Amino acid sequence: MSRRRHIEPSSLLIWALFLLMEGSKSRSMEFAPQILDHPSNLVVRKDQPATMNCRAAGNPAPTIEWYRNGKSVKTSIDDATSQPTLLPDGSLFFLRLSQEKGKSDEGVYHCLARNHLGTAMSKNASLYLE
């Protein structure tokens, strides 16, 4: 007499869902941000464009913030006419650098990459106008 084991279909479904969830966890390993491309010092002529690089990795993808002389830089990713513009890769783009009294773009910049697992800060880079 052979004994056959009967497995309920609902048990198979639960087992399949478990395997799917475990597989997706291993593929989507979360990690804190890391700066991959730090900004570097720039010397640029007034009224010329410039880009300060900042590229970061993390999962979930980090948000990028910029600071000049320790103060937050107001940026826009949606408005290309905004000064300066945050590019999709995290870099900071200036269409025209200004050196007006009280509103100069010169300074020491750094970027921060953040997600819920942590924060990474880039090296400082100076932007000089000639």
TrEMBL record:
Pfam families reported for this sequence: Ig_3
Entry keyword annotation includes Transcription: no
Gene3D superfamilies: Immunoglobulins
GO terms of molecular function: cell-cell adhesion mediator activity
The organism's place on the tree of life at top rank: Eukaryota
Domain called Ig-like: residue spans: 33-126
Residues of the signal peptide: 1-26
GO BP annotations listed: axon guidance; dendrite self-avoidance; homophilic cell adhesion via plasma membrane adhesion molecules
Entry protein name: Roundabout homolog 2-like
This protein's UniProt keywords: Immunoglobulin domain, Signal
Record has Signal as a keyword: yes
Residue runs in coiled coils: none
One of the record's GO cellular component terms: axon
